Structure formats: C-alpha cells, structure tokens
C-alpha cells in the first residue's frame, strides 16, 4: 500500500487554562474532613471568554478532521491517509491551522491581558482569582504550536540493515505481519464508523411516528462514508466495494426533509438501512 497511502501526524500543544488552587483545596479538605489526596480544586482560569473558546474549538477541529479523513495505523502516532483523500484532507486541515495561527490565536493573545483582569470579577473567579496562575504573554504564546507531518508508509523491502540474511528475513517477516495487522485494524475502524452511522440512523428512524428532531447529520454521516469507503479501499477489498455500492443505492433520494415529512418514506428508508446492517459482517 506504500504507493496508495501515506502517514500523517499532527503534533499540537496548547495552554490548558487550568490551575490547582492550593488554598481552596486545603480549605475543601478541612471542610469535609478528607485525606490529602481525596480532593482538589482544579479551577478554570478564563471563563466566558469567546476568543479563548474559539482557539480551543479550532484545536478540537484539528482532531475531528484528522480522524474523519484517516485510518488508524500505529497505536498512537501517525495515521494512514490514502492518496485519493489527500487533497481534501490537506485543504481542510491547512485551513484550520491558518485560522488558528493567523486569526484566532493572535486575537486571543492580544486580548489576553484584559481577560486576566476580568478573571477576578465576581461573576467569574471572584475570591479564587490568583494572578500567579496566569503566564505572561510571551510564555503563553510559547504554549501554542502545531506541526503537520507527512511521511511514506514503510515497505518491508526497504530494510537495509546489515544483520545477516536469516535475521533480516525474520525482521521482514515480523514487519510484514505487523503491516497486515495494522491494515486490518485500519479497515476495522472504517467498518465501525460505517456501522455506527447506519445504526444511529436506524435507531432515529424507529417508531410508527417521527420521534424528536431530525438533524441533517443523520443522513450526511452515512453518505460521507460512501465516499470514504471508496477512497479508503486501497487494497480493492471486494466487501468494502460492495458496501459502498449498496449504501449509495439505499441512500439515493434520501433527504432529511423527506424523512421529516413522510412517515411512509421514513419507514421504507429504515428498512433499507436495517437490511444493510444485516448484510455485512461488521
């Protein structure tokens, strides 16, 4: 798969905006008669600050985007990105990084000194406010960093260490086994995501009458997987190819508006989704 995919990794650091209040922790322990490690006061340093919240939201979007477009590869670290998905992923992730580095973070840092002053207000931290908990602006800026890295998927034939033919064969065999296991794990992740989207849709469509609000994501979460099942299928797995075709057929003409307004259409769609859930070894 080395010619059909690559590895991608995003290393990011940010200020968590929390601090342990030792005085409040000690008072809490005295009030409740607890031991040293029974409790602690871990306070939020910036409350009701939209610029700070925006930075955290965008950092969360980095993870959401990474996990949407990629499959797991190592237990922790790089993830597998197929070449058909690369341009969509790279566009989406670089836009988020640009929004953080060029818009959200500068705005937050510029306003940060005023945020610290507001933190002591009675509607925020009040008596819990301690200026020593807040880093200065330069230190704060150093807490933020994002690095996006792409690298090739190693191939077993690339081993060039001088350890003898027999030992090298063992190393290659071990890597090829790990390679196969990682690919199986990657596909398992795709199957699970597809199953979860279908199962959630089936559950929401249950009942003779529509129950509760319907959101567009109920449909788009399924239709998005149609595209990903195609672009993630770098080994031309026949079951994954069949799932892509059958889900696309089942979702043809399905809209959130139709599901909201027509009980008959909703039950018909649920039956199709339930058939999909029974058709594959998820």
| Order of helical and strand elements | EEHEHEEHHEHHHHH
Distance between the termini: 23 Å
- Strand percent estimate: 5-15%
Structural class: alpha+beta
- Determine the mean pLDDT: 91
Determine the number of helices (DSSP H or I, runs of at least 4 residues). 9
Q: Which regions are unreliable across 5 or more consecutive residues at pLDDT < 50?
A: none
Q: Compute the CA-based radius of gyration.
A: 25 Å
Note the main sheet.
4 strands, antiparallel
Please state how the strands of the largest beta sheet are arranged side by side.
4-5-1-6
Percent helix range: 55-70%
What is the β-strand count? Answer: 6
Shape call: globular
Give your account of this protein's structure:
By secondary structure, this protein is α+β, with helices and mostly antiparallel strands. The chain has 9 helices and 6 strands; from the N terminus they run ββαβαββααβααααα. It has helices at residues 22-32, 50-69, 83-119, 137-142, 165-204, 217-231, 238-251, 256-261, 263-279, and strands at 5-13, 18-20, 42-44, 71-72, 79-82, 145-152. The chain has a 4-stranded antiparallel beta sheet, sandwiched between helices. A two-stranded antiparallel ribbon has the order 2-3. The two termini are 23 Å apart.
